[in-house]
Amino acid sequence: MKIAIVGATGLVGTVMLETLERRGFKIDLLIPVASERSVGKEISFLGKKHKIIGMQQAISLRPDIAIFSAGGDTSLLWAPKFAEVGTTVIDNSSAWRMDVDKKLIVPEINARELSKKDKIIANPNCSTIQLVMVLAPLHKKYKIKRVVVSTYQSITGTGVKAVNQLENESNNIKGDMAYPYPIHKNAIPHCDDFTKNGYTKEEMKLVNEPKKIMGDQNLAITATAVRIPVVGGHSESVNIEFEEGFEIKDIRTLLQNTNGITVKDNLETNTYPMPIYSEGKDDVFVGRIRMDYSKDNALNMWIVSDNLRKGAATNAVQIAEYLVDNSLV
Questions:
Q1: How many angstroms separate the CA atoms of 169 and 30, rounded?
Q2: Is 234 a catalytic residue?
Q3: From the candidates 126, 184, 190, 191, which is the catalytic residue?
């Protein structure tokens, strides 16, 4: 089993490698790939040093699976070239997510859609993954009519430059800016670029991707995405309106029995999900589950997950595991 990690030196790429190690993914040959400026550098994996190589050399090695986390433009250019030599690409960028010919996969929800023919598989947006992990079981039982989501997103979703900006600002050091404004002691309602409709690309991912993953284009979703000075994970305030009535206790039971979800919801002990708790964990955490008394068949909840783990690396590795376990590579 030959596995390439494209973008191995980046923030998500580093977590990808850690996730492969932690989950005991069987690898005969690790192929770390990065930009030309990183070629020749070394990374550690399972106690051994591995040299970074370039794209063309990686393709010549014909990896079984290539997990990409190197940006949309890189993926658009290179993913098809890997696919041409028989490699199955799992791409973490937004490049292929809404392509009608590509699968958008959260393994717990729709991995069964995958086949050997799928040579480029899209990993959803980090905010989308934690949202649909909760929405999917609820939609299956109660039929969701409308979703309103507001996100409170970690700077790690932007990358190393944003992490450095927060650290610099916290220490009164001038440096490169990942955002147009200070992020320290601030909240910026601007995740990704603005589009012509007034929403950001991040907000439109939250509108469009769940419909594809859950196979229902009739879902009504609206979103506001906000960047906050947090490292441990993304948080989401979610309002859900259902076609059918429900009991809160049944909602809790359903979510408690869903693989990959942890319910943290005890007001007597002030127990609820927070980024400080989700950091470094794979589960999606749900709490503050309560009725929306302003509307029939509606509820509110708070969803938190580590955006670098389940929101990126863990989900991609889970896809790879599914491919191997089902002899699809």
A1: 37
A2: yes
A3: 126
